[in-house]
Each structure stands twice: as C-alpha cells, then as structure tokens.
Amino acid sequence: MASTSKCPYCDGTVRSDEKTCSHCGAVNENYTEDTKRQIFHPKTIEELKEYCAERGMPLLRMRFFIGEDFKEPRAFGIYQDGDRYIVYKNKYNGTRAIRYLGPDEAYAVNELFQKLLSECHNRGIYPDGKPAENTTRSSYTAPKKSSASGILKYAVFAIIGIMVFVMIFKNCSNHKNDGYYRFSSDPSVTWYHYGNSWYYSDIGTSNWYSGNPGYGDSYTDYYAGKDFDSDWGVTDFKDSDTWESISSSSDSSSDSSSYDSWDSGGTDWSSDW
Fold first, then answer.
1. Cα 194 to Cα 179: distance, rounded to the nearest angstrom
2. Is 182 helix (H, G, I), strand (E, B) or coil?
3. Is the pTM value of this prediction over 0.85?
4. Which residue has the higher pLDDT, 209 or 37?
C-alpha cells in the first residue's frame, strides 16, 4: 500500500508509487518501487507507530513512548487527551517539560518525529536515509604530497582505530553487570539490569516494568546471577513482552542492527528538550 505526501512545488497530493506529481509533473522525491508501505513523514500517532515498527526501532530502549502518557523519568512521548495532543519529555529527575499541547495532531507528531530523528542521527543511525555526501568538485589543485602527509595519514588511521576500540569497550562495559538482582529490602520483587536500565517484576505478576531500585553503585552486592530461577515467583525476563520489545529487530530502510547498541545515557536528560 502506497503512502501519500505533499508535492513541495504545488502542494498537491502525490502517492509514493508515482514517479511524478499528477498535478504539476514535478519529480516525486519520495517515489519508491517497494510494495511494502513506507511512511516518509508521519502525520498521525498511528502513522508514527508504523514508521518505527517498519524500521525495527526498539522504542522502549530508546525511551520513546508513542500514544502513551508515560510517567517515569527519562522519556519522550506523545499522547492524545480528548481533542488535545501532548508532546512531552520526562527529565532525569522525573519533572516533565511540555513541548506541545494543542489540537494539531500533525504538528505534535512532527515535533516528536524530529526529536526521534535527531536522537538517531546523533548515534549515526539514519532511518530517514543517510544524507548524500558532498561531491562538488573544486578547481583547487592540491600541492604535491610530501612524506609528512603519509605520516599524517597513518596517524589518522591510528586515531580512528583507537576510537573504534573505545566504542566497543564502552558498549561491553555497559552490559558487564547485566542479570538478575534480588534486594533484601523487598524480597518479593526481582530486578533485571540491562545496560543502563532497570526492570522489575513482583510475585504473581507476569509483566516487567521500567524502574530504578535506588541502590546507586552498591547494587552489584545483590547480584543473583544471569540465570533465571523459577523459585522467585515471577516470569523469566527473557520470556516477557518487555524483553521482546528490547531485543526485537526487523528488516528496515536502515541497518536495524545499529539499534542493538542504543544507550539512552547518550541523551541529555537535563534539558527541556
């Protein structure tokens, strides 16, 4: 099923499977031969959900809550309340900053959509397509290379190699303490630590929820292991919908594996937006 968009030249409606605008004949920049539906610029909450699903975005890990009034810290979201649409950001301390509150759904969706793209771009992920490289040729003629330029080239390669190593090490260190935790203050609750996030479940509850046990750096003293124990009276975290949401991936217009290392700690949670 084709999506539709506005022609930037005449404002006429054009389908994604049309090579040119039927109103003015301009080239359709959003043309695609793919029969799978592609929403290039979502204008409703449901379209934004579809956009993210088509690209395999793990929204829970990314801390984006679409169509949900999520109350916990560190979250971006949008939801409808009567005839109003609310776009918000919950900061690290739990206070909420309202980005938009009004009746214009398309405007509200675009506010969150642009923030979503910005967070992706900051991590080198381009769900909207990687920007084209500047291929403009210059009339300037480079001076003849010297031996110093060769040394500089190898130095650059060495620096890049170090940066890649640091990134890999950082990603591994973020997950070195992943696993189950049991805190003596409330033995009925089991916690799971994943990256920089916490999830918990209570006895008799099949769901897992995002939270924070509040033990600071001393949380490692309560490590229960990486393996699940049915005696805890909760559902295995790896069998929950929460884990499915975190680990899910699908074919998309971008490399979905790029989302696997998403760290919400890379977001500025102290600012209003």
1. 7
2. coil
3. no
4. 209
